[in-house]
User: Fold these one by one.
Assistant:
Number 1:
Amino acid sequence: MSTITVQNELNVYESAEARFEMAARKLGLEDGLYKYLKYPSKEITLYIPAALDNGKLEVFKGYRVLHSTIRGPGKGGIRFSPDVTLEEVRALAAWMTWKCAVVNIPFGGAKGGVICDPAEHSHAVIERITRRYTAELSEWLGPERDVPAPDMGTNEQTMAWVMDTYSMHVRQATTAVVTGKPLDLGGSLGRREATGRGLLMVTNRALAKLGRRPESTRVVIQGFGNVGMFAAKLMHEAGYKIVGLADISGALYNEKGLDIPAAIRWVHGDKKPLSDFSGGARMSAHGVIFQPCDVLVPAATENQITSDNAQDVQASILIEGANGPTTAPADAILDEKGVFVIPDILGNAGGVTVSYFEWVQDRQGFFWRESEVNERLQDVMDRSFDDVVRYAESHKVNNRIAAYMVAIDRVARALKLRGIYA
Ligand code: NAD
C-alpha cells in the first residue's frame, strides 16, 4: 500500500480527497467521471439574520453542500459549530455520498453547517437560526431532493423545527424531509442507538473473521456522546471489556474494565464530567487512544490518529465511529502494523442506514417495531462489511481504500446508466 502525501495532514478535505484519488486511480476511473465525482453538484452559502435575546440582530453564516444526487436524494447532517468551514462541509458531503453507497442505500450525499456555538445561545435563538436556515433552503430540500439529519450541535428538536418550517412552506406535513426526528413526529425506533449499534455489529463481524471472542476483547472508546455512549453500552452488554473511556473532560483507563452502566448514569444522568468518575487511572482524552487494548473506537472527533502517533496505537482492530479520526498519511503506518481497520464510511454507517429506514417509514406512513429496525440494520451492516472485506482481499488493498472503491464503483455505474444531461 503506497503512502498518501497531503500538504496539510489535518485538513479533512485534503484527507478525503487523497483517499478518493487513490481509490479512483486503483479503479481505473476514467478522467471525466473522476472530475464529475470529485466536485460537489451544488454549494450554497447563506447569511442568516436572527434576533438575539437582547433584541440585537446578528447574522450567521451557513452552508449546504449537495455533493451528489446520482443514486438518490442528497442525505447528510446539519452541524452547528463555531468551527464550521465550507471546506469541511464539502468533505463531509462527499463522505456521505460514499457512505450511502458503501451500505448500498438509495441516497446521494450532502451536508450543512452554520457557524454558531449552540452553547452560547438560548433555545429561542437556535430555533430562529434553524427556521431561517431551513426557509432559505426550502426550494432545495425535500424528501426527493435533499434530506438533512442531526450532526454536531443539532438534535431531534432541531430536526422537528426543520420539519415544521419546511412543512409550512410547502403547505403540507412532510415528515420525510428530515431524519433523526422525535418519535412523535415520524422518527424511527432504534435511530438514537443506530450508530453505536452499527459499530457493535461490525466489531462482532471483525472478531468472528479474526477468530476472537468478545469476552476476551479489551476496548477503548474515545467519545461518550451519542455514538460513543451507545457503543460503550451495547458493547458492554455484549460481553466486551471496556478498559478505556474518554470525553472532552478527560479519560479513564482500567485494564480490569470500567463500570459502564455507572459511567452512563454519572455523565448522562447526573451530568457530571467523565474525568471525575472513579474506577480507573485518569489521563488525557487523547492519551487513552494509545493504551493497551484490542479494539480502539475513536468516536469523538477528527484527526486523532496521525502520522506522528499512529505508531503508538496498540490496538489490533480500529473501528472508526467518528468521521475522519485517522488522517490519510496515518493509513500506511496502520497497514504496516497490520491493524485491521473498519473505516468511518462503513463503521459509523449504522446512523444513516436507520435514517434511511426512517425516511422509508415516513413515506409509507407505516412504522416498524424496534426489533425489525435492528434486524434490517444487521443485514445491511453484515452485507456491507462482507462486501468491503472481500473486495480488499481480492484487490489487495486495505479496507479503507476497498470501501471507497466499492462506493465509487457503485456511484460511477449509476452515473453511466443515467448519462450526462446536457
Ligand atoms: P456528540 O456531540 O453526541 O458526542 C461527542 C463526544 O465526544 C462527547 O462525549 C464529547 O465530550 C467528546 N469529545 C469531543 N471532543 C473531544 C476530544 N477532543 N477528545 C475526547 N472527546 C471529545 O457527537 P456524536 O453524535 O457522538 O458524534 C461523534 C462523531 O461521530 C462525530 O465525528 C460525528 O460526525 C460522527 N458521527 C455521528 C453519527 C451519529 O449518528 N450521531 C453518525 C455518524 C458519524
Number 2:
Amino acid sequence: MAMQRVLTGITTTGTPHLGNYVGAIRPAILASRDELSESFFFLADYHALIKCRDPALIRQSSKEIAATWLALGLDIEKAIFYRQSDIPEISELNWILCCSAAKGLMNRAHAYKAAVQANEEAGEDADIAVTMGLFSYPVLMAADILMFNAAKIPVGRDQIQHVEMARDIAQRFNHNFTDVFSLPEAVVDEDGAVLQGTDGRKMSKSYNNTIPLFLAEKSLRKAINKIRTNLLEPGVPKDPDDSTVFQLWAAFASVEETARMRNEFQAGIAWGEAKKQLFELINSELADARDNYMRLMDDPGHIEAVLLQGAQRARQYSGEMICKVREAVGIGAIR
Ligand code: TRP
C-alpha cells in the first residue's frame, strides 16, 4: 500500500486549549502513529503575522505550541515537525503561486469577505485594515500544502475553503506548466467534537471562553468549576445534551463512562459533583503530559533543536520540489 501524506499547520497566535486538543491535536498525534501515513506538522508562524502584531505573543505561542505537541508524545522520528519560517522554499513558492492564483478566487475567501463586510457595515471604506497578507492568505496556505505534495489535510470546517483553493491553484499551475503538484483534499474529523467553551458557545480564543490545556491542577479545577450551568438543584434530572459539562465529559471518557454519566444526569447528579468528576477525568488524562510540558517550557534549547532538525528533514522535500517548480516556470541558470 502507498504511504499517505498528511499535513497540517497550526497558527502561532495563542495558547493551546482543550478545544484544540480534542478537535485537532489529539486526533493528529494518534493518526501520525499509523504505519501507512507520513505526517507533516508545522508551526504556521508566517500565517500568525496576518492577525497578530505582537511579536512577544507570537514568540510565546510558538514555544507553547511546540512544547504542547512534544509533551503529548508526538513521535518526531516518524512525523516531520517544523516551523514554516525555517523553510525558505515556502516563501519562494508562495510568490510563484501568486502568479498562478486568480485574484477573483481570493475575492471569495471567507476571511477576506468577512473583513470587507464588517467594514461596510461600519460605514467604512471596504479596504480598511485589509492587508495583502489577509487577502493572499490562501496562497501561502497553498504553498504550505503543495510544497510537500500532501494528500490529506486535517482542518477545522472554517479551513475547508482554503484547502479547496489550494487544489484550484495546483490545477491551474499544472495546466499552465507541467504536472508538478498533486491535488490535496481536506479531511474534517466528523466526531472530533467541536468543544463548547465555559459559556456554552464554541470554545475559541476569540470568545474568551477557553480552558487552557496545561493549566496547573488548581487552576484547572477552578476553570471547570466556572463552566456555566443552569440552576437545577441536586436530584432534579438534567439534560446531558444541553450541557457543556457533559459534552466535555464525553470528549474525554470511554463509551461506557459516557453512558454512565448520561444516566447520572438523568438521575439528577448535582452540578458540583459532575464538575468534580469531570476535573478528575481530565486531570488524569493530562497529568503526565503536563509534567512533560513544564519541563519542556524550561528547556527552550531542546525545543529549538527539535524544530531545526525537523526543518532539515522537511527541506529535503522542499528543496527538491522548488527545483521542479523553478524548472517548470523558467527560473534558473542560463544554459
Ligand atoms: N490556516 C490554518 C488555520 O488557521 C493554519 C494553516 C496554515 C494550515 N497553513 C496550513 C492548515 C496548511 C493546514 C495546511 O487553522
